[in-house]
Amino acid sequence: MRLVRSILARKRTLFVCNECGGDAAGWSGKCPHCGAWNTMVEEVIAKLPGKPLSHGLISLPVPLTEITEVSGERLVTGIGELDRVLGGGVLRGSVNLIGGEPGIGKSTLMLQLSSELARRGEKVLYATGEESPEQVAGRARRINSLQDNIIILAATDLDTVLNNLVNSDCTIVIIDSIQTLYSADLSSAPGSVSQVRHCTAELIRVCKARRISAFIVGHVTKTGSLAGPKVLEHLVDSVIYFEGEGDRLYRLLRAAKNRFGSTNELGVFEMTKEGLKSISEVSSYFLRRDDACRAGTVITAVMEGTRPFLVEVQALTSTTRYGYPQRSVNGMDSRRLPMLLAVLEKRCGMDLGNQDVYVNVAGGASLTDPGADLGVCLAVASSRLEKPVREGITVSSEIGLGGELRPVTHFDLRLREVLCLGFTGLAGAAEDASNAGRGAEGFSNLIDSIGSLLSSRKEKGGDWL
């Protein structure tokens, strides 16, 4: 009886937030730490026998000036788009978190990565908790990724994975996925906040000590963020999102965090029956030439990190049938569109108060570059006036509230991409055009650019109101 009371006394219940990892003694609809709604989950916390506070050698403080410089070794994976996003390859000893929706191709990407690294002499431990070894081997045969240096371990116990990792000479470890991994040190269920956080911390401890590069696959929530507490993103070296639509063949790879490279790079893949294929010509994916001369369509040059590419910005205006005009945007910040429409009305005298305005970035691209402002304004004006943009012209410029065209970064790289793809020129701010040379066309304000870049040919009725 005394033993039962002792065990019950050691257990207590906490409510933990799935978003931030904060805990509270009682349940509430709103997390008291991060303010997220409906994220508090009940977990049983058991006090297990304590462990020593230190393991191995004790670290001593060292003056900063006495620390020698160590250049990290990068492993080129052979997957060009992944190397671009990671900053030139996988850094030896780094821990990388890969997130994406179910069925998007995370396991396929990890298996192809294992195959490419194995071809380069690395030994890979592939720990799978969601699929059987036969399923993994079947996918490897389908995508031609069979290699002797890939070891498949079907396990969900953390100690089993760590023991195999320590006792082998593997230099790469892949965990698919972290939500299936559990530790016997905790009483909570696999996939809970405490289990995910503890398992990740133990993996990082072992990988950093032995300079083993790790890739941890994680699921995403319904909001698109990685499942589990945000503290995981602070523990790992890079956080990479694998995005795409279920009905599209293309997948996008973005880095939300990267301690060893830029977070602005974009990787593009095509899903084929032989696996994921890197797309080096990104503009060919986002661009369709047959729509370029249609009213409401503008080809815009944008930057993602150091890579320029062209996207097709589409706009449609129609007379509103409701009390308030509709404003809908897909592929860019929805708060940016009302500001650009206000500039068109105030600075250019274009009446859009009785018009529904719809803006779409074709191909599923998501734009954060302010250089797309001119493309959006020009597409809306083209649709409103029913005048297409001059043939062969692309645009790239930021729009100020005064209607002025402002310079953008790397205008020369954008112009080079435009000319390489067979377009005649790139229109933007006068300051950018004056320094770019042949093929650049500059304007000082938005109203001048609309008057010059729109064709005199009208597809159907409508005047500048």
Could you characterize the architecture of this molecule?
It is built from 13 helices and 23 strands. With 465 residues, it is α/β, with parallel strands linked by helices. It folds into three domains: 2-46; 73-280, 3-Layer(aba) Sandwich (Rossmann fold), CATH 3.40.50; 286-453, Ribosomal Protein S5, domain 2 (2-Layer Sandwich), CATH 3.30.230. A nine-stranded mixed sheet has the order 8-7-9-10-6-11-12-13-14, with helices on both faces. Helix 9 packs across helix 10 and helix 10 packs across helix 13. It is globular. Residues 1-9 have low confidence and may be disordered.
Q: Structural class, judged by helices and strands? A: alpha/beta
Gyration radius (Cα, Å) is 27 Å
Low-confidence stretches: 1-9
Quick one: biggest sheet? 9 strands, mixed
What is the distance, rounded to the nearest whole angstrom, between the alpha carbons of the first and last residues? 87 Å
Task: Just name the CATH architecture of the largest domain.
Answer: 3-Layer(aba) Sandwich
Fraction in beta strands: 25-35%
The name of the CATH topology of the largest domain is Rossmann fold
Provide the CATH superfamily of the largest domain. P-loop containing nucleotide triphosphate hydrolases
Mean pLDDT across residues: 85
Helix count from the secondary structure assignment: 13
Percentage of helical residues? 25-40%
Apparent shape: globular
Strands of the widest sheet, in order across it, are: 8-7-9-10-6-11-12-13-14
The number of domains is: 3
Number of strands: 23
Q: What is the CATH first-level class name of the largest domain?
A: Alpha Beta
